[in-house]
Structure formats: C-alpha cells, structure tokens
Amino acid sequence: NKEEEEQPEHVKQDGTPDMRCKENKEEEEQPEHVKQDGTPDMRFKENQEQQAAGTTTTTHHVQQPHNLATTAASHETNRKFEQEHPRDEQGRFVAKPEEHVKQDGTPDMRFKENQEQQAAG
After folding, report:
1. 28 vs 65 pLDDT, higher one
2. Alpha carbons 23 and 47: distance in angstroms, whole number
3. Which long-range CB contacts under 8 A does 37-42 form with residues at least 24 apart?
4. How many other CB atoms sit within 10 Å of the CB of residue 31?
5. C-alpha separations of 17 from 20, 54, 56, 59, 76 in Å
6. Tens digits of residue pLDDT in 100-116
7. 76-97 CB burial, b ≥16 within 10 A, e <16
8. Cα(18)–Cα(39) distance, rounded to whole angstroms?
9. Secondary structure in 3-state letters for the chain
10. Is pLDDT of 62 > 70?
C-alpha cells in the first residue's frame, strides 16, 4: 500500500512516534545544558527561557548506586578538612598565621588577621 510506505518507519499503531527509537527521541526538544541527574541546568539562559515558556521536559531522577566505601571515604575527607581548617565563633574559616605571608616571609597586610596581629603587637 502507498499509505503504509509514506508513514515513517518507527510509528506505533495509533500513529504516534515510537519513542524506543533513537531518531524519534532526538526529535523531542531536550535542553542542551543538563545536570548529572538529567534536569535542565538553570544557570543557562536557554533553560530559563524554556522553563518560563513551560516547554522544559521533565526527566526522572536516576539514583546513583549507594557505595558505602565511597561514603565512608568522603566522610573521612570531610573530617580531616575540618580538623586542618579551624573556624571562628561565627563559623568562618580562620587562616593559620603562616598562610598569609609574602614570599620574603613578612606578614601580608592585605589580610585582617595580620593587621590585627600588628595592631596588638
């Protein structure tokens, strides 16, 4: 039949594109900039405009496999970082005195800690 030959190859019986086929998936408008979980990255103007127009495609979040060894390692890394980088009363990181020195070894006066040290000393 001529009617059957004119229809695209990958169409379901009801006439809608068969989304199992790559060529039909490519026709669907996908954001160019997406995050790892497949959602549009809203830092990009195109994605912001698509969302405002209501044309953003939603994808289901694919959960990454849970790896206890990786989780434990990241907790250990965070713990070491917290030990090596102390915080003040407001929760801000406090620089070690030796961190803010110029190449000649003198204190770098651009930093508040060194200015306070010089005023006190």
Report:
1. 65
2. 23
3. 37/61, 37/62, 38/62
4. 20
5. 9, 22, 19, 18, 50
6. 888 888 888 998 888 88
7. eeeeeeeeeeeeeeeeeeeeee
8. 23
9. CHHHHHCCCCECCCCCECCCCHHHHHHCCCCCCECCCCCECCCCHHHHHHHHHCCCCCCCCCCCCCCHHHHHHHHHHHHHHHHHCCECCCCCECCCHHHCECCCCCECCCCHHHHHHHHHC
10. no
pLDDT of residue 56: 52
Give Cβ neighbours of residue 17 (< 8 Å, ≥ 6 apart).
8, 10, 11, 24, 27
Per the structure block, which two tokens stand in for 45? Answer: 């103007």
Question: How far from the centroid of its chain's Cα atoms is residue 86's Cα?
Answer: 27
State the virtual CA torsion across 4, 8, 9, 11 in degrees, nearest 10.
Answer: -90
